[in-house]
User: Fold this.
Amino acid sequence: MKKFLAMLLASVMVLGVAACSAPVEEATDTTTETKETLIMGTNAEFPPYEYHEGDAIVGIDAEVAAAIAEKLGMDFKIEDMAFDSIIPAVQAGKVTMGMAGMTVTEERLLEVDFTDTYATGVQVVIVKEGSAITSVDTLFEGGYTIGVQTGTTGDLYSTWDLEDEGLATVERYNKGADAVQALVTDKIDCVIIDNEPAKAFVAENEGLAILDTEYAVEDYAICMAKENPLYDDVNNALKELIADGTVQAIVDKYINAN
Ligand code: GLN
Assistant:
């Protein structure tokens, strides 16, 4: 019930941001001031960071991004896209920033800049209860089929560590939820994915378990195009929201409140 209330509040907040922007734009006729729009590129298939709730996209990232926009006096909009389209959209200037539970990696740092980190993610392994896979080490014994979401760190690590070594087959899906459905229907042996969406997917499906051993621990941050003049504004706003406890309050609302 508490969780439902949090979700409801979240959608009201995001809708509220959208609703506020209209009168401001109308007002431009009289004030001649146009607000810039902060556009967040994301993949809203990643609960509790970003997911669909009715017509709205809600979640930790959606709320933190809305708070950044508010601090900067900007309008706010979310563009939903495939996870592996986010960095190209950031680079092309189609979105102001990418925020999608995105892990800071050396490879991505060659393509985009990252802000300070605002959360920790853990790559975990989801299996069916009673699976022969009992730890990450089992995967290295070879012969398993691993499901991942295309372009995520789960995809990159399992490809480099296991598939490229001839130790596993990696099946790539557009959504984490699709990989989980493939596991439920025995098309694959496990899913490597971030811990928080993993918990959400396991809660929604009977007979699944998350292994105790972690595959990797990572930092989440917002990515922006290199040389984006808004970088300092966005990063400073994020720093302030971390320092004053706003980010933690948003995280608590979605993760610790239940
Ligand atoms: N943290 C993972 C990554 O950055 C997955 C993110 C996601 O699926 N939204 O690759």
Summary: DSSP finds ten helices and twelve strands in the chain. The two ends are 9 Å apart (CA to CA). Residues 11 and 55 are 9 Å apart (CA to CA).
